Amino acid sequence: MTDRIVATNRKAQFEYFLLEHYEAGISLSGTEIKSIRAGQVSLAEAYIQTDGKEAFLVEAFIAPYKEGSIYNHDPKRKRRLLLHKKEIAELWNAVRLKGNTIVPVRLYIKNGLAKLDIAIARGKKQYDKRDEIARREASRETALSFKNQE
Q: How much is the pTM?
């Protein structure tokens, strides 16, 4: 069964160098998974917070389920990530010792379960971002010139 990508964090590629990826499950309430399957998710301002024992997805927006009752979920609540102890320790050490950050990259459905691709990331400087934009525009121009020659 293939993975169905529900949401991506496009800013993460641009703002950070993504060093190491992890797959994490998410502890969700009943109406949250229904909203995720409907594609009502935003990871734009989201980040991962850890204390060495647990990891949480913070500031991710999952819209309230339209057909939900008064027991609908809070759209911006902290959600616990389901990772192995060893993985949480690696994330904690990367943040604490090396000064990196942990960002969510994409949210997808795998075998009926919501999974989150998270990455240890190091922030890009302004000149790194400019270099990336210049490379992207140069490759776009060469592709366009090849297309026009044919």
A: 0.81
